[in-house]
């Protein structure tokens, strides 16, 4: 049996009671750590689970070497832990299909992900349009297609959740060329960096942009953590705000209902 | 302190470890039971929590009589439990705003909701458009505006999650007139009933409908439960399928990527 277990958004205690029971009794436990990150480390998890044999699963292991995960699941219980909910990222659906093809039973223990927890900012989940991802720009790669999706949402009155880029297990070009498994420190896009890229696109689009530097957006950081932070402010102000440690996301509100407007007002900084 | 605690989708053990700790130590615990239902009863929850004083909160209590909830939260810990995640429905954002206005601190312990757990059917969460609600039709009220939203999603290649109506704490017209608090048994729309209403709309729309009776849809039941059930089949076949006990939902797939197509094929019944 292969269990897909969501860990939720915060710390070790955000696992469900049911999930914890499986983790404690499983023969092998893999921790996926490339599509998201946990605020607490592997060691904290191991301590909380009462076992010291968590296996870190990087993209390679899951996408090419899934055999290692699946082998034991044929006869024993294997747990595959994913930060948030297991089915945000395609790769895990792929792993599930491969398991089923081998006749391995699978079960999912769901948890919160940013895709539903973002409702805590007070905007209606039903009124969010397509979720977009804002990638880190480089000197010669500055895509802005995500902005078109925000515009389509705005046209229809929808809010947009912008997921901000995370770079985990990146290698420098030199290390890649030399096939060395030396990784750069992880990077997480901040609300400020996202606002900066958005403002540059808005400037470029001119009158075609449906938002401007004075448009209110909501910067959110560490949703589901004790020190969660949410501020509604004009984009030009978000540019200069420090939301602290990762993960950050950004919400571009569409048409606001009365209660939603109240909620947004509540997130504005008091003068 | 007022805690909003998500209970997840399955049984008592789907609460998070963190949520359970709060429930055990809170002075008062309210269980919201009108926007969704838990498969297990109040008694099961009480047994699992080790306390026998759960207070059922109906819409009246939350929308008009929130004082009762907020009063104790000024000086003590009060937990407000919601099936799924607390911020699917507007009413809870309203309660949070009222608490903050009174200077009461609030915290949210998130959990899975159908809005993110639906990813387990193998379709990418990012590729879902607007979520729609399909209401029970009556003899003289047969709204079909939700179908237009499905059509807009289809035009853009997006999948649609259709939430199916639930009727909890309904009163007959007679009982309402006489102001008697006698409630009808709860009702939950089945996949078959949803397919029936969709097929009637498709027939009415004729060539303007972007799906027909042969279009594949995915019926899902009891997501997150041990006996979760998902079947991909033509709408006309879903009409005659029994998915068992509630809750049911329906997914209308849009443009499918290769992996998504694999996942859908996996959900088709073997001949």
Give a nutshell description of this structure.
2 copies of one chain form a homodimer. The first copy, chain A, contains 11 helices and 12 strands. The first copy, chain A, has 271 residues and is of the alpha/beta class.
What can you tell me about this protein's structure?
The structure is a homodimer of 271-residue chains. Chain A has 271 residues and is of the alpha/beta class. Chain A folds into two domains: 2-112, Tetrapyrrole methylase, N-terminal domain (Cobalt-precorrin-4 Transmethylase, domain 1), CATH 3.40.1010; 115-266, Methyltransferase, Cobalt-precorrin-4 Transmethylase, Domain 2 (2-Layer Sandwich). In chain A, 33% of the residues lie in helices and 19% in strands. Chain A contains eleven helices and twelve strands. In chain A, strands 3-2-4-1-5 form a five-stranded parallel beta sheet, with helices on both faces. A five-stranded mixed beta sheet of chain A has the order 6-7-12-10-11, with helices on both faces. A two-stranded antiparallel sheet of chain A has the order 8-9. In chain A, α7 links the parallel β6 and β7. Chain A is globular. Chains A and B meet through α1, α5, β5, α6 and α11 of A and α1, α5, β5, α6 and α11 of B.
Strand content of chain A: 15-25%
Give me the secondary-structure category of chain A.
alpha/beta
CATH superfamily of the largest domain in chain A: Tetrapyrrole methylase, C-terminal domain
Query: What is the number of E strands of chain A?
Result: 12
Portion of residues within helices of chain A: 25-40%
Largest inter-chain interface?
A: A-B, 57 and 57 residues
Q: From the 3D coordinates, which CATH architecture of the largest domain in chain A would you assign?
A: 2-Layer Sandwich
Number of helices of chain A: 11
Query: What's the alpha carbon Rg of chain A, rounded to whole Å?
Result: 20 Å
What CATH calls the topology of the largest domain in chain A is Methyltransferase, Cobalt-precorrin-4 Transmethylase, Domain 2
Average residue-wise pLDDT of chain A:
91
- Text of the CATH class of the largest domain in chain A: Alpha Beta
């Amino acid at each position: 049996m292969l269990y897909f277990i969501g860990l939720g958004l915060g710390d070790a205690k955000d696992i469900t009671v049911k999930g914890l029971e499986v983790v404690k009794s499983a023969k092998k436990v893999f921790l996926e750590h490339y599509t998201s990150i946990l605020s607490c480390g592997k060691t904290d998890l191991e301590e909380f689970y009462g076992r010291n044999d968590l296996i870190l699963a990087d993209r390679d292991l899951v996408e090419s070497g899934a055999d290692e995960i699946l082998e034991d699941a044929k006869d024993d219980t294997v747990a595959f832990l994913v930060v948030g909910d297991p089915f945000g990222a395609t790769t895990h659906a792929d792993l599930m299909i491969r398991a089923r093809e081998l006749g391995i039973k699978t079960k999912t223990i769901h948890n919160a992900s940013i895709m539903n927890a973002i409702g805590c900012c007070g905007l209606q989940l039903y009124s969010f349009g397509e979720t977009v991802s804002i990638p880190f720009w480089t000197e010669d790669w500055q895509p802005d297609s995500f902005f078109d999706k925000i515009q389509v949402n705005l046209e229809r009155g929808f809010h947009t959740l912008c997921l901000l880029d995370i770079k985990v297990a990146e290698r420098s070009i030199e290390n890649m060329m030399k096939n060395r498994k030396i990784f750069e420190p992880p990077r997480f896009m901040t609300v400020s960096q996202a606002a900066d890229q958005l403002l540059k696109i808005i400037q470029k689009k001119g009158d075609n942009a449906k938002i401007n530097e004075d448009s209110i957006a909501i910067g959110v950081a560490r949703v589901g953590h004790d020190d969660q932070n949410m501020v509604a402010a004009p984009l030009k102000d978000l540019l200069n705000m420090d939301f602290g440690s990762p993960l950050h996301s950004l919400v571009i509100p569409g048409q606001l209902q009365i209660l939603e407007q109240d909620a947004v007002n509540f997130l504005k900084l008091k003068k």
